[in-house]
Amino acid sequence: MVVNHIKNKRIENIKLSEEQLLEILNNCKRCHASEYAKWTSGGHSVDYEHIFLNAKHNSTEQINYDCLRCHGMFFEGNVGNVIEPMNIKGPWKLKKMKMATNPAIPCLACHLIHQDGTPQVRPDYSDPKTVFYQKKGAISKLGFYDRHEKVFYPVTQLPQLNLWEGERKVKVSDDPLLRNCVQCHAPNAQHQAGTSDDRTPRGVHEGLSCMDCHEPHSNDARNSCALCHPAISNCKLDVTKMNTSFADAKSVNNIHFVACIDCHKGLRPKNRGNAIKVVYK
Predict the structure, then answer these.
(1) How far apart are CA 103 and CA 72, in angstroms?
(2) Nearest one of 203, 186, 188 to 255, comparing CA atoms
(3) How many angstroms separate the CA atoms of 75 and 259, rounded?
(4) Do 221 and 214 touch, CB atoms closer than 8 A?
Protein backbone atom coordinates (compact mmCIF):
# COMPACT_ATOMS: atom_id res chain seq x y z
CA MET A 1 0.00 0.00 0.00
CA VAL A 2 2.89 2.37 0.78
CA VAL A 3 4.62 1.60 -2.54
CA ASN A 4 1.40 2.17 -4.48
CA HIS A 5 0.90 5.45 -2.64
CA ILE A 6 4.39 6.70 -3.51
CA LYS A 7 3.91 5.70 -7.16
CA ASN A 8 0.54 7.49 -7.11
CA LYS A 9 -1.07 4.25 -8.18
CA ARG A 10 -4.72 4.06 -7.14
CA ILE A 11 -5.87 0.66 -5.92
CA GLU A 12 -9.63 0.66 -5.46
CA ASN A 13 -10.18 -2.86 -4.18
CA ILE A 14 -8.06 -2.92 -1.01
CA LYS A 15 -8.32 -6.12 1.03
CA LEU A 16 -7.83 -6.00 4.79
CA SER A 17 -7.29 -8.97 7.04
CA GLU A 18 -9.56 -9.58 10.02
CA GLU A 19 -6.76 -8.49 12.34
CA GLN A 20 -6.42 -5.19 10.47
CA LEU A 21 -10.19 -4.67 10.59
CA LEU A 22 -10.19 -5.09 14.37
CA GLU A 23 -7.53 -2.38 14.57
CA ILE A 24 -9.84 -0.12 12.56
CA LEU A 25 -12.67 -0.95 14.95
CA ASN A 26 -10.59 0.46 17.79
CA ASN A 27 -10.25 3.65 15.77
CA CYS A 28 -14.00 3.79 15.11
CA LYS A 29 -14.79 4.25 18.79
CA ARG A 30 -12.53 7.29 19.10
CA CYS A 31 -15.05 9.39 17.18
CA HIS A 32 -18.17 7.24 17.44
CA ALA A 33 -18.08 6.64 21.18
CA SER A 34 -21.86 6.68 21.59
CA GLU A 35 -22.48 4.27 18.69
CA TYR A 36 -19.69 2.00 19.94
CA ALA A 37 -21.16 1.93 23.46
CA LYS A 38 -24.59 1.02 22.08
CA TRP A 39 -23.10 -1.66 19.83
CA THR A 40 -21.25 -3.12 22.82
CA SER A 41 -24.52 -3.35 24.78
CA GLY A 42 -26.36 -5.12 21.94
CA GLY A 43 -26.37 -8.58 20.43
CA HIS A 44 -24.25 -7.69 17.41
CA SER A 45 -21.15 -7.32 19.60
CA VAL A 46 -21.16 -11.07 20.30
CA ASP A 47 -17.73 -12.72 20.12
CA TYR A 48 -16.49 -15.97 18.57
CA GLU A 49 -16.60 -17.82 21.89
CA HIS A 50 -20.29 -17.20 22.52
CA ILE A 51 -21.25 -17.95 18.92
CA PHE A 52 -19.26 -21.09 18.22
CA LEU A 53 -19.06 -22.63 21.71
CA ASN A 54 -22.80 -22.49 22.38
CA ALA A 55 -23.43 -26.12 23.30
CA LYS A 56 -27.24 -25.84 23.06
CA HIS A 57 -27.07 -24.50 19.52
CA ASN A 58 -24.26 -26.78 18.36
CA SER A 59 -26.07 -29.90 19.58
CA THR A 60 -29.27 -29.07 17.69
CA GLU A 61 -27.92 -27.56 14.48
CA GLN A 62 -24.95 -28.87 12.56
CA ILE A 63 -22.06 -26.42 12.24
CA ASN A 64 -21.60 -25.72 8.54
CA TYR A 65 -19.50 -23.64 6.20
CA ASP A 66 -22.18 -20.96 5.81
CA CYS A 67 -21.98 -19.99 9.50
CA LEU A 68 -19.27 -17.48 8.65
CA ARG A 69 -21.57 -15.66 6.22
CA CYS A 70 -23.02 -13.78 9.21
CA HIS A 71 -20.69 -14.68 12.09
CA GLY A 72 -17.06 -14.02 11.24
CA MET A 73 -17.41 -12.87 7.66
CA PHE A 74 -13.85 -11.46 7.63
CA PHE A 75 -12.22 -14.63 8.99
CA GLU A 76 -9.48 -15.88 6.69
CA GLY A 77 -10.33 -19.53 6.20
CA ASN A 78 -13.41 -21.71 6.61
CA VAL A 79 -15.39 -22.74 9.67
CA GLY A 80 -13.26 -25.86 9.97
CA ASN A 81 -10.37 -23.56 10.86
CA VAL A 82 -12.45 -21.96 13.62
CA ILE A 83 -13.90 -24.83 15.63
CA GLU A 84 -13.62 -28.57 16.16
CA PRO A 85 -15.15 -31.12 16.00
CA MET A 86 -17.56 -30.47 13.15
CA ASN A 87 -20.44 -32.49 14.58
CA ILE A 88 -23.40 -32.19 16.97
CA LYS A 89 -21.79 -34.25 19.75
CA GLY A 90 -18.92 -32.07 20.95
CA PRO A 91 -17.28 -31.10 23.18
CA TRP A 92 -16.30 -28.12 21.05
CA LYS A 93 -13.28 -25.88 21.23
CA LEU A 94 -11.85 -23.04 19.20
CA LYS A 95 -8.71 -23.92 17.29
CA LYS A 96 -7.21 -20.54 18.23
CA MET A 97 -8.31 -19.52 21.70
CA LYS A 98 -6.81 -16.04 21.23
CA MET A 99 -9.74 -15.25 18.92
CA ALA A 100 -12.33 -16.14 21.59
CA THR A 101 -13.08 -12.52 22.46
CA ASN A 102 -12.84 -11.18 18.90
CA PRO A 103 -16.17 -9.70 17.74
CA ALA A 104 -17.91 -11.96 15.23
CA ILE A 105 -19.87 -9.02 13.75
CA PRO A 106 -17.56 -5.96 13.75
CA CYS A 107 -18.58 -2.48 12.59
CA LEU A 108 -17.36 -3.09 9.05
CA ALA A 109 -19.72 -6.03 8.63
CA CYS A 110 -22.47 -3.47 8.04
CA HIS A 111 -20.66 -0.16 7.52
CA LEU A 112 -18.70 0.93 4.49
CA ILE A 113 -15.79 3.28 5.23
CA HIS A 114 -15.91 5.04 1.86
CA GLN A 115 -18.93 5.63 -0.32
CA ASP A 116 -19.79 6.89 -3.78
CA GLY A 117 -21.50 10.24 -4.21
CA THR A 118 -20.86 13.91 -3.63
CA PRO A 119 -19.97 15.65 -0.36
CA GLN A 120 -22.73 17.41 1.54
CA VAL A 121 -22.91 21.19 1.00
CA ARG A 122 -24.34 24.06 2.98
CA PRO A 123 -27.91 24.98 1.98
CA ASP A 124 -28.99 28.34 0.60
CA TYR A 125 -30.34 29.86 3.80
CA SER A 126 -32.20 32.55 1.83
CA ASP A 127 -34.37 29.81 0.33
CA PRO A 128 -36.20 27.79 3.03
CA LYS A 129 -36.96 25.01 0.54
CA THR A 130 -33.30 24.08 0.27
CA VAL A 131 -32.93 24.02 4.06
CA PHE A 132 -35.49 21.29 4.57
CA TYR A 133 -38.18 20.57 1.99
CA GLN A 134 -35.91 19.92 -0.96
CA LYS A 135 -32.79 18.95 0.92
CA LYS A 136 -31.14 15.91 -0.58
CA GLY A 137 -30.67 13.04 1.79
CA ALA A 138 -27.26 11.52 2.28
CA ILE A 139 -26.56 8.12 0.73
CA SER A 140 -26.52 5.51 3.48
CA LYS A 141 -23.17 4.00 4.35
CA LEU A 142 -24.92 0.85 5.46
CA GLY A 143 -24.41 -2.30 3.47
CA PHE A 144 -23.51 -5.97 3.56
CA TYR A 145 -20.09 -7.58 3.17
CA ASP A 146 -20.26 -10.82 1.18
CA ARG A 147 -17.36 -13.00 2.33
CA HIS A 148 -17.67 -15.31 -0.66
CA GLU A 149 -17.40 -12.51 -3.21
CA LYS A 150 -15.21 -10.39 -0.90
CA VAL A 151 -17.27 -7.41 -1.94
CA PHE A 152 -19.20 -4.84 0.09
CA TYR A 153 -22.70 -4.21 -1.31
CA PRO A 154 -24.41 -0.91 -0.32
CA VAL A 155 -28.06 -1.25 0.72
CA THR A 156 -29.13 0.47 -2.50
CA GLN A 157 -27.76 -2.51 -4.44
CA LEU A 158 -29.34 -5.20 -2.27
CA PRO A 159 -32.55 -6.83 -3.53
CA GLN A 160 -35.99 -6.19 -2.06
CA LEU A 161 -37.23 -9.12 0.06
CA ASN A 162 -40.01 -11.24 -1.43
CA LEU A 163 -41.77 -12.91 1.50
CA TRP A 164 -44.70 -15.31 1.56
CA GLU A 165 -47.07 -16.61 4.22
CA GLY A 166 -48.32 -19.77 2.55
CA GLU A 167 -49.56 -18.49 -0.82
CA ARG A 168 -50.12 -14.93 0.42
CA LYS A 169 -47.45 -12.37 -0.33
CA VAL A 170 -46.43 -10.47 2.79
CA LYS A 171 -46.17 -6.70 2.55
CA VAL A 172 -42.55 -5.73 3.25
CA SER A 173 -41.30 -2.23 4.01
CA ASP A 174 -39.44 -0.51 1.17
CA ASP A 175 -36.91 0.86 3.68
CA PRO A 176 -33.52 0.05 2.09
CA LEU A 177 -32.02 -0.51 5.56
CA LEU A 178 -34.29 -3.54 6.01
CA ARG A 179 -32.62 -5.12 3.00
CA ASN A 180 -29.42 -5.22 5.01
CA CYS A 181 -31.06 -6.85 8.05
CA VAL A 182 -32.56 -9.70 6.01
CA GLN A 183 -29.17 -10.71 4.63
CA CYS A 184 -28.67 -12.50 7.95
CA HIS A 185 -32.17 -12.53 9.46
CA ALA A 186 -33.44 -14.34 6.39
CA PRO A 187 -36.22 -16.86 5.67
CA ASN A 188 -35.68 -20.26 4.08
CA ALA A 189 -35.12 -20.87 0.37
CA GLN A 190 -38.89 -20.80 -0.23
CA HIS A 191 -39.06 -17.31 1.34
CA GLN A 192 -41.67 -18.41 3.85
CA ALA A 193 -42.26 -15.91 6.66
CA GLY A 194 -41.08 -16.94 10.12
CA THR A 195 -38.76 -19.70 8.88
CA SER A 196 -35.04 -19.89 9.64
CA ASP A 197 -34.07 -16.58 11.26
CA ASP A 198 -36.71 -14.43 9.57
CA ARG A 199 -38.23 -11.76 11.83
CA THR A 200 -39.88 -9.58 9.21
CA PRO A 201 -42.98 -7.99 10.78
CA ARG A 202 -46.32 -9.63 10.04
CA GLY A 203 -49.76 -9.44 11.60
CA VAL A 204 -50.64 -6.00 13.00
CA HIS A 205 -47.10 -4.75 12.33
CA GLU A 206 -46.88 -5.95 8.73
CA GLY A 207 -45.16 -3.43 6.51
CA LEU A 208 -43.01 -1.90 9.23
CA SER A 209 -39.24 -1.73 8.91
CA CYS A 210 -36.82 -3.17 11.47
CA MET A 211 -35.65 0.39 12.08
CA ASP A 212 -39.16 1.48 13.12
CA CYS A 213 -38.68 -0.38 16.39
CA HIS A 214 -35.00 -1.21 16.80
CA GLU A 215 -32.31 1.26 17.79
CA PRO A 216 -29.74 0.96 14.98
CA HIS A 217 -26.63 0.07 17.02
CA SER A 218 -27.88 -1.54 20.24
CA ASN A 219 -30.97 -3.15 18.61
CA ASP A 220 -32.86 -2.08 21.74
CA ALA A 221 -36.61 -2.00 21.10
CA ARG A 222 -37.85 -1.55 24.68
CA ASN A 223 -39.11 1.99 24.12
CA SER A 224 -40.51 1.46 20.64
CA CYS A 225 -44.06 0.57 21.73
CA ALA A 226 -44.53 4.01 23.29
CA LEU A 227 -43.66 5.68 19.99
CA CYS A 228 -46.92 4.48 18.42
CA HIS A 229 -49.14 3.21 21.24
CA PRO A 230 -50.62 4.91 24.29
CA ALA A 231 -49.68 3.21 27.56
CA ILE A 232 -53.29 2.08 28.02
CA SER A 233 -54.76 0.73 24.80
CA ASN A 234 -58.41 0.62 23.77
CA CYS A 235 -58.46 -2.87 25.26
CA LYS A 236 -57.40 -1.38 28.62
CA LEU A 237 -54.12 -3.28 28.41
CA ASP A 238 -50.83 -1.65 29.30
CA VAL A 239 -48.81 -2.43 26.17
CA THR A 240 -45.58 -1.48 27.94
CA LYS A 241 -46.03 -4.44 30.29
CA MET A 242 -47.03 -7.05 27.72
CA ASN A 243 -44.66 -9.94 27.05
CA THR A 244 -43.61 -9.12 23.50
CA SER A 245 -40.17 -10.69 23.48
CA PHE A 246 -39.31 -13.04 20.62
CA ALA A 247 -36.96 -14.77 23.05
CA ASP A 248 -39.94 -16.24 24.90
CA ALA A 249 -41.23 -19.14 22.81
CA LYS A 250 -44.52 -19.07 24.75
CA SER A 251 -45.24 -15.40 24.15
CA VAL A 252 -48.50 -14.86 22.23
CA ASN A 253 -47.63 -11.19 21.81
CA ASN A 254 -44.46 -11.60 19.77
CA ILE A 255 -44.31 -8.23 18.04
CA HIS A 256 -42.88 -9.80 14.88
CA PHE A 257 -46.05 -11.73 14.06
CA VAL A 258 -48.84 -10.95 16.57
CA ALA A 259 -52.24 -10.60 14.85
CA CYS A 260 -55.57 -9.17 15.95
CA ILE A 261 -57.12 -12.63 16.17
CA ASP A 262 -54.43 -13.75 18.63
CA CYS A 263 -56.11 -11.62 21.30
CA HIS A 264 -59.66 -11.05 20.11
CA LYS A 265 -60.47 -14.65 19.08
CA GLY A 266 -62.92 -13.56 16.39
CA LEU A 267 -64.35 -10.66 18.44
CA ARG A 268 -63.84 -7.00 17.66
CA PRO A 269 -63.83 -4.64 20.67
CA LYS A 270 -66.56 -2.02 20.78
CA ASN A 271 -67.45 0.64 23.32
CA ARG A 272 -64.95 -0.17 26.07
CA GLY A 273 -65.18 -3.91 26.42
CA ASN A 274 -68.41 -4.79 24.62
CA ALA A 275 -67.64 -6.88 21.58
CA ILE A 276 -69.29 -7.85 18.35
CA LYS A 277 -68.79 -11.09 16.50
CA VAL A 278 -66.38 -10.99 13.56
CA VAL A 279 -66.09 -13.76 10.99
CA TYR A 280 -62.56 -14.26 9.61
CA LYS A 281 -62.35 -15.76 6.16
Answers:
(1) 8
(2) 203
(3) 41
(4) yes
C-alpha 161: how far from chain center: 14
User: Looking at residue 135, what is its pLDDT?
Assistant: 61
Whether 135 contacts 128, CB under 8 Å: no
* Measured distance CA(259)–CA(213) in Å, rounded: 17
More confidently predicted of 231 and 201: 201
Contact 133, 139 (CB under 8 A): no
Q: In 3-state terms, what secondary structure has residue 169?
A: strand
Question: SS3 for 38?
Answer: helix
pTM value is 0.79
Residue 245, classed as helix, strand or coil, is coil
Q: Whose CA is closest to 175, among 213, 149, 147? A: 213
Report the interhelical angle of 33-41 vs 18-31 (nearest 10°).
120
Share of the chain above pLDDT 90, in %: 48
Q: For 204, which DSSP code?
A: G
